[in-house]
Amino acid sequence: MSRTLPRIGRRGAVQGGTAALVVLGLLLWWLRPWAEEPPSGTITFSTGTRAGVYHEYGELLRTEIDKDMPDLGVRLLTSAGSQENVADVATGEADFAIAAADAIATYKLDNAPGADRLRGLARLYDDYVQLVVPPDSDIRSVSDLRGKRVAIGLPNSGVRLIANGVLRAAGIDPEKDIQPSSDGIDTGPKRLGHGLDAFFWSGGLPTDGLSRPAKKSASAFRFVPIDAGLVAKLHDQGGATRYYRATKMPESAYPTIQRGHAVPTLAVSNVLLTRSDMDARLTEWLTRTVLDSRDLIGATVHSAQLVDVRTAIYTDPLQLHAGAQRYYQSVKP
After folding, report:
1. Which of 116, 154, 236, 324 could share a disulfide with 287, CB 3.0–4.6 Å?
2. pLDDT digits (tens, 9 = 90+) for 33-63
């Protein structure tokens, strides 16, 4: 037997329409800031050397920003790396940058200009220290670098900061006990065995500047381990060294070189940073884009696959920017 549905009266229709509008309003509020007009203008983003992960990540992020905020121009700046990036943001030379936690902490401990204005948007991925030598080198440990020609990174780079710390932990004076050079990832691989006995690099895995030669030849270079005991001695130096942790570079990083073997080393986290006076709405939008674009960027920059909303919020040694905090509150379960 069929049942006739009750007819909806005029009053019921009005009530139903009002309820639908309330639900729609709540939905639009929840989807904030996407319900708003995207930020516009121009920002500067300091990255790193062109052969490094920072610059590659910056280029890919700029593409994603253009999708979400088409009227926002992004000007990428190359730099020596973390130490320069921190200083550029703190002093207003750049609006946003990526930098390693040890470089940020060192800048703050030095009470350098603008240090109190630095704020974090997201913890991104980890940098791994990679000590590279020719395949037939007699260098088997950091202590074997004494008297050798060693590239310790560009001045004001994160590589220079961490390489000097590692050398001192091994009892080596970077200025007296080696022949130091300023080669970075852009020139270090080419000069290895041709003016260089070893070079330090600190970056995400894998770094294109090492992947390219590794794919061409399984004997392009070799990694020197940095064991946990040396990392413990590094921690004894105090200061920003607490941001280093002993770990292993997975065998999948450079498979043709590592041949199934993980390499003991140390790692330090990277933070996307800005200043406290940066517009909160812009910062909220940018934080959202960083988290939402993880898989697209990670398809090229594999280390970016590790960006996660549950860990991104931990931007130590920096406080969260108000805009970034607003974003994390909006996605909190």
Report:
1. 324
2. 455 799 999 999 999 998 899 999 999 999 9
